[in-house]
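residues and backbone:
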Amino acid sequence: MEQVRKSAHDCDALVIGGGIVGLSTAYAITRAAPGTRVTVLEKEPGPARHQTGRNSGVIHSGIYYRPGSLKARYAVRGAAEMVKFCAEYGIAHAVTGKLIVATGRDELPRLHALVQRGRENGIPVRELGAAQIEEYEPEVRGLAAIHVGTTGICDYTTVARHLADASGADIRYGAEVVRVDRRPERGVAVLTSGGDIVRARVLVNCAGLHCDEVARQTGDDPQVRIVPFRGEYYELARPELVRGLVYPVPDPAFPFLGVHLTRGIDGGVHVGPNAVPALAREGYGWGVVRPRELAGTLSWPGSWRIARRHWRYGAGELRRSVSKAAFAEAVRRLLPAVEERDLVPAPAGVRAQAVLRDGTLVDDFLIREGPRTVHVLNAPSPAATASLPIGREVARRTLAALAATE
């Protein structure tokens, strides 16, 4: 690749990834430092084609996350900001509240712990007995529940488009990154699949499912591997069974929330997701297999340690993936009236989960820096909710890196 010259930079900050985190970062950079030249490269023909556009559309309250963590702070702050952003730009949204329902006695201590965690995170919660659940959800059954009033729903794909437009950045779709050449003393040059070379002073890696690969291309060691987990959804054929959002009590030993019920902004009810290993970074079905990516997952020691540690949980998720009857059985714990025929297959999503070499699942947002680079290395749920605060933090680091190059 042609050598980078300081005088030949095409932009100041080059953001890789046109999901909601990358576009929020571009938006935050130009808001904080007007006149900063920002370019965004996205390999798809439009924004938000992966994690952003394939989730359940929930504006999370932040109740689940460890007090003081980035997830807790950014989700609580981000939820309020996301509602305000949607209102400002006329984007469909609603603050619906949600129920977290305990269906077994073993879940009651965890439910009570969530009440305490919610209060520590500054989230108002209301504790409900079995009879009170019906006030919110007549068809839902449980021993106890909590109502979280700040949870909502929105259209994140439309949010991403507005962030793109409002950022004023040069956004290039269909521009997949093929190669990165970083010269710490000069800058960064990126070769795209279309043969274009884009030169920048600082590279910002918001590549989601491919963020660890992009980090390695720059010459930085991410020290994590993205292990993709597919979340499979159904649509409820009888949406009248559910008024709002209904969640089970999560198992803190695993980072996924379990099968839940979400009435979307379009009035339909999503059921899911489960969580199964994907056979490709963008493996939205069992038939999508990319041998090189699968080999990369299997060669990472952390993948095998996860399998050994969570094989019982994983076996249940696999069973629900291959058996609609098993999936329906899981849903009936919350919604007894549901029948197998009520579940209509819906598009799946893939979670980009960062895993350490020892098999630890990174449980917080992870942002790291290198010479002329800022890498977002773990931003799964609730990253869409928290995207505005995440974008500001990545922008802050990017502007500091730019200042250091002057």
Summary: The chain is about 30% helix and 25% strand. Residues 1-7 have pLDDT under 50 and may be disordered. The CA atoms of residues 28 and 392 lie 5 Å apart. The two ends are 24 Å apart (CA to CA).
